[in-house]
Amino acid sequence: MRKPFLIGCLFVATLAMGQLNTTDEEAIKAVLETQRTAWNNYDLETFMETYWKSDSLTFYGSAGVVRGWQATMDRYRKSYPTAAHFGQLRFVLNDITPITAEAYYVLGEFYLTREVGDAKGIFMLVMKKIDGQWKIVADTSCATP
After folding, report:
1. Using one digit for the tens of pLDDT, what is the confidence trace for 93-112?
2. What sign does the CA torsion over 18, 23, 29, 35 have?
3. What DSSP line would sit under 23-47, residue for residue?
4. What is the largest CA-CA distance in the chain?
5. Which of 15, 71, 76, 85 is 20 to 30 A distant from 111 in Cα terms?
């Protein structure tokens, strides 16, 4: 009698963990949708709200490593100075994988359609739940030919 009970408990626990992961994945997708919408509205301030507002935020791109939220904001302002440089952003999410219960990595592709020339590339984000909200704590983005 104990064995079926234990197996039942493990089954219920597994289902609950799967639900939690699905909830986290949906919340992470919502953060990325906030990013996409803000970008497409030329709203860098809202776009940057998805990043961890910390000196420990890390962005790694073609110009090297940038550390800190403000430095990342400044990098975006310099690289995308006008709405024509922003264009319209589209993501393809290839993988969302838990690292811990409070952290995930996200692998994807970005596509920018814009007046000054289209751009595309790949990215890997590390997202962490901070004060109940999913934030990007590390961003590695690279343009591809």
Report:
1. 999 999 999 999 999 999 99
2. negative
3. HHHHHHHHHHHHHHHHHHTT-HHHH
4. 70
5. 71
